[in-house]
């Protein structure tokens, strides 16, 4: 087992960041491995990945069907050129391309439950259904990055060989860059309360709920940081802040390579998602002692917060955990009640310092880089099975 190819969708997402942490850990612990990276969709300037041996498709085609075919030919070309012993892919469509092409060992990493793919347009939903029924079975192994994702994959009978491997987080790197100066041209000097929502802009994230809550939170600025995944939804958000008259209090910022100084600076990090796998931004915020308020979007949240109770997906009350606050899922209560809960819990955090200091973040043990040994052993096992 020598040549390993990593397939990403793009290089400017949180998935790319945690995948890169995995790659760096593999290179550190197993320096004899020859690892190359390929971005299937595009490689924007200023991305996280700086790799001297790098393939990427130079142009993203905005015709969705045509882009799928271009991506298939691109992956085929990369595999023929590099001749990997193992190809590791991330996310739904890229996992499908990996399953479809090549005779090497193929591993698919899934970062979210299938419900997230069902919230896309009709083309994406149809192709995901086909991949679910026909392609993912062709993967030699599947990894879920949280117990929630693993359980979901088993329910959908995606594959017979599913393993739990938590995303690796590079806390040493976070410590190195967390105190870099914040661009005051972008953020200004902190004079007001600040809320941060960090993640892709799409309907699953429900940023509209936070915007509507802002009307009842005086003297508060909201930063929404993330790549626009759904242009229509983004335009709806822009229209919403205009209608509500809070344009000056909501700031949209594209993906940031280093969000940690901002995470440290804000008063609250909020996640209002319907569905999540193992949200890294919550892990990183807790590590940086920033108060966290999040919806009951997955079992992964309970894992991070070290909750001992049996997971309740239909939680209808506010849970004050040792490590943060969990509020109901947006799908399980009315919008008016959801907004009221967000306002009340953020106001509670403003009044109390309870969530500012975390004595010990137990979950960090499961996501440190030395857990790469388990992942490597899984790859080696798959490679040896195929060799025999």
UniProtKB/TrEMBL annotation:
Source taxon at top rank: Bacteria
Gene Ontology molecular functions: glycosyltransferase activity
Pfam families on file: Glycos_transf_1 (PF00534)
Name of the molecule in the record: Glycosyltransferase
Domain Glycosyl transferase family intervals: 190-309
Species of origin: Flavobacterium columnare
């Amino acid at each position: 087992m020598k040549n390993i190819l990593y397939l990403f969708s793009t290089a400017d997402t949180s998935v790319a960041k945690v995948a890169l942490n995995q790659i760096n850990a593999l290179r550190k612990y197993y320096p004899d491995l020859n690892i190359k990276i390929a971005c299937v969709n595009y490689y924007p300037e200023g991305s996280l990945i700086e790799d001297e041996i790098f393939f990427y498709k130079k142009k993203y085609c905005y015709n969705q069907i045509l882009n799928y075919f271009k991506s298939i030919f691109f992956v085929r070309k990369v595999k023929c050129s590099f001749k990997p012993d193992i190809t590791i892919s991330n996310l739904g469509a890229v996992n499908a391309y990996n399953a479809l092409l090549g005779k090497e060992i193929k591993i698919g990493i899934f970062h979210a439950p299938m419900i997230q793919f069902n919230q896309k347009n009709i083309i994406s939903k149809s192709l995901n259904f086909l991949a679910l029924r026909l392609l993912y079975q062709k993967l030699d192994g599947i990894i879920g990055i949280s117990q929630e994702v693993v359980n979901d994959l088993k329910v959908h009978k995606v594959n017979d060989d599913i393993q739990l491997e938590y995303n690796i987080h590079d806390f040493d790197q976070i410590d190195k860059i967390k105190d870099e100066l914040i661009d005051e041209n972008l953020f200004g000097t902190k004079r007001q309360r600040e809320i941060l929502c960090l993640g892709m802009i799409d309907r699953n994230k429900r940023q509209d709920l936070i915007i509507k809550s802002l009307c009842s939170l005086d003297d508060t600025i909201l930063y929404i940081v993330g790549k626009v995944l759904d242009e229509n939804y983004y335009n709806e958000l822009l229209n919403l802040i205009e209608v509500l008259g809070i344009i000056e209090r909501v700031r949209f910022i594209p993906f940031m390579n280093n969000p940690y100084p901002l995470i440290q600076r804000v008063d609250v990090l909020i996640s209002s998602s319907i569905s999540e796998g193992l949200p890294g931004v919550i892990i990183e915020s807790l590590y940086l002692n920033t108060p966290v308020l999040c919806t009951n979007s997955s079992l992964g949240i309970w894992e991070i917060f070290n909750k001992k109770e049996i997971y309740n997906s239909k939680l209808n009350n506010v849970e004050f955990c040792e490590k943060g606050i969990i509020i109901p899922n947006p799908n399980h209560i009315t919008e008016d009640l959801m907004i009221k809960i967000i306002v009340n819990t953020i106001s509670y955090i403003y009044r109390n310092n309870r969530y500012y200091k975390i004595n010990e973040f137990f979950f960090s043990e499961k996501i440190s880089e030395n857990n790469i040994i388990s992942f490597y052993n899984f790859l080696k096992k798959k490679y040896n099975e195929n060799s025999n």
